[in-house]
Amino acid sequence: MDFSVVAVGREDDSPVDEPLRVAALADRLGYQEAWAGEGPTWDSFVLATAIGGVTGRAALTAGPVPVSLRDPYTLARGAASVAAVTGRVVGVALGTSSRRVVEGVHGRPRARPAAVLEETAAAVRGLLHAPPGEPVVPGSPFRRRLSPPGGPLTVAAFGDRAIATAAAHADRMLLDIVTPEQARTLRAKLVAAAERAGRTPPTLAAWLPAAVDPEPESLAQVLRSVVGYLTVPGYGDVFTAAGFGEAVELAAGGADPDTLLRALPPAAAGTVGLVGDLDTVRARIDAYAEAGLDEIALVPATAGDPAGERTLGALRACV
Description:
Blueprint: E1 2-7, H1 18-29, E2 33-36, H2 44-54, E3 59-66, H3 72-86, E4 90-95, H4 99-102, H5 113-128, E5 150-156, H6 160-169, E6 172-176, H7 180-197, E7 203-212, H8 216-227, H9 236-241, H10 245-252, H11 257-263, E8 274-276, H12 278-291, E9 295-300, H13 309-318
Parallel strand pairs: 1-2, 1-9, 2-3, 3-4, 4-5, 5-6, 6-7, 7-8, 7-9
Helix pairs in contact: 1-2, 1-13, 2-3, 3-5, 5-6, 6-7, 7-12, 10-11
Pfam family, one: Bac_luciferase
Keywords: Oxidoreductase
Domain Luciferase-like: 3-294
C-alpha cells in the first residue's frame, strides 16, 4: 500500500494557505506525493507550483481538474509548466466534477460529462508524453518547448463509463471517500474494463478523510465532507446500511448542510475514511488493502490538528 497526501483548499473558514502547510509537513515526514486539489478557492496548477516552493522532494499531482473547464492541451501544458518551474515530477488528474461547480461556479455547461472525460483522457495521455520539438498539437505550427512533466495520468471514476475511461487511458484510477466494500466492487469493475481494453489495470487510489485520535473539531470537519455525499447515487444505501438512514432521508428531502451535520453521529465519520485511535485506523487500512486499493491519499482533518500533524505523523510512523 502506498500513501500520499492531499493538500486541498477547504471551502470553509480554514486558512487559505492551509494546503501549503499540509504539503510542507507531508514532505518533511517523507510522504512521496502531494495532490494539489482544485476547487473554488485554488487553481490546482497554481497550488501545485506553490507546493513545489515549500517542499523539497515530493512528486506533485494537479487535480482532479474538471474536464468541462479546460481543453486537453491546456491541461498538459499546465502540468509541464509546473514541472519546469518546480523541477518535480508532475501528474495531472481528471474528473467530471459536479453541475454545482461547473455550471454554478464557472458558468460553463456540463454537457456529456462521461464522453468529454473519455475524449480528454485520450488526448491528454498522448500530450503528456510528447517530447520537445514536436507540434504542441497535431498540425500546429507551434512546437513544444517544455519537457514532458513525467507524472501519471489519473482519472477520477465511480460510474461505469468513467471506469472504462480510466481502464483505457489512465495510469491510476481515483476514488473519493469510499468504504472498503465499495473499493472492492469498483476494483473488480476496473479489472474487467481493463481486460476488455487489452490493458494492464491502472493502479487504484482513493482520497480518504483521516483523523487519528480526533478532537471533536476534527470529527465535525470529516462529517462535513460526508454530508456532501448523502445524496450521491451509490452512497445513500451505504450510509443507510451503516445506520444513518435518518440523515439520508433528510438529504433526499433537501435539508441544509447544518441540519444534516446535526443528524450524523460521530460514528459516521469512520464509514468512508480512517478515523479513530491508531489501532482502529490500522485495521481500517488493512481492510482497504484487502479490498484492492493500491494507494491511500490521505485527506487529513486539520481542525483541532493544525496541518494534520498528529494524523500524518502517526500514520507515517505506522506505515
